[in-house]
Amino acid sequence: MQAERWILAGLLTAFGMLAALAAVALWPHAPSAVAAQFFPAAFLERSAAYSRGAYLSFALRTAVQLGLLAWIAFSGLAERWGERALRLCGGRPVLAAVLFAVGLALLLSLVDAPFAYWRGFYWEHRFGLSTQPAAAWWADQAKGWAIGAALQAVVFAALFFLIVRLPHAWWVPASALLAAGLWLLTLLSPVVIDPLFYRFRPLPPSPLKTTLLDMASRAGVPARDVWVADASRRTQRVNAYVTGSGPTRRIVLYDTLLQKYDDAQVELVVAHEIGHLAEAHIAKGVALGAAGGVLGLWLLARFLRGLWERGILSPLPHPAAVAWILLLSSLGTLSTMPLQNAISRQFERQADAISFRLAPHPEAAVSLERRLALSNLADVDPQPYVEWLLFTHPPQLERLLAAEAAARRAGGAKSK
């Protein structure tokens, strides 16, 4: 197996995908006649400008990260840095791998910082979507980078421990640990990680809260409470989501949603999130992630062995493998992104369909989808390639048309 040729082919494919995204983003794209029926021309022009910058930023920063990892791996830097880490750690490969992984995570964060600032702070402020001061934004970034480095340290400590103990079959127990880790992260994120970024409070008692909890009960997924996040300290965007598992499962609303939208529209948003719970989308996502992880770890083991056989990588558990693992993982994530997003879009369509049936006022869905697009400056009718590669949700225009059809059905049912 000529592993390096497969990796180079993967890199060329990845750079081709990113170049195509940049080209599509720059190509003039007139809004469809259907989009023009629902949205003002000024909004469509503004959302196109905002989205164009976001897509170009994603393409460039991803290409830079992949290029840096490829250079470190193929240039021999990984081998030299790995040897240095071994010397610093007294020849202990697990500790050396953790040191290498944390150092590389910090390096990648430093290289990514200008792109993150441009996209996450400057571009959001330019279009009036962010309310966060620079100091608070940088504090959030630092917390995110610290969490990422800590998780990376844990992952590589476990992985290299298994490689030392089971040099020929380490990927088998690693697959089981990955599944357990995904579930544990899902369980703990709402109570350990999320509070580092937002303050949460229960939705105060009100007729709205009674309606929301009643909807959850009717859907067969009784909710203990509905939580509100203080998102207005950061953004003008409107959002809601479901998170957690078992005792930590919760429905979370942005306070911007409650401030800007009427009760009927909030009920529809929450009905959508209840739809995710009714369809067990979180559990299905974890299961799919675990299944993909088994295949990914098996392929990773084959590639690392192939690199060693070709004399490109020192035998495992040499810490130089950290750079190759991160490179291969990044390539795997990008190459499977269209499939992951296609599954996510289908989940969202299922949740939308449930919300139309569950919410007391399905006719409000049309105005809701239009307002969500306006509030979030959404690319309502993206070019097909952009949707295929990047969109985790159906485009807003598709959702609006589905809401319009549901409203007609609801009106027809009432008239009978």
Describe this structure in words.
The protein is mainly α. Helices cover 73% and strands 4% of the residues. It has a four-stranded mixed sheet with strand order 1-2-4-3. A hairpin with a 6-residue loop joins β3 and β4 (250-254). α6 (134-165) packs antiparallel against α7 (171-193). The mean pLDDT is 94.
Task: Describe the secondary-structure layout.
Elements: H1 3-26, H2 33-38, H3 41-74, H4 77-88, H5 93-126, H6 134-165, H7 171-193, E1 200-202, H8 207-218, E2 226-229, E3 240-243, E4 250-254, H9 255-260, H10 263-278, H11 281-309, H12 321-358, H13 365-376, H14 384-390, H15 396-415
Parallel strand pairs: 2-4
Antiparallel strand pairs: 1-2, 3-4
Helix pairs in contact: 1-3, 1-12, 3-5, 3-12, 4-5, 5-6, 6-7, 7-11, 8-10, 10-12, 11-12, 12-15, 13-15
Question: Concise description?
Answer:
With 416 residues, the chain is mainly alpha-helical. 73% of the residues lie in helices and 4% in strands.
Radius of gyration: 23 Å
- How many domains? 1
Percentage of β-strand residues? under 5%
Task: Please describe the biggest sheet, giving its number of strands, its sense, and whether it closes into a barrel.
Answer: 4 strands, mixed
Number of helices, counting only DSSP H or I runs of 4 residues or more: 15
Task: Output the keywords.
mainly alpha, four-stranded mixed sheet, 416 residues
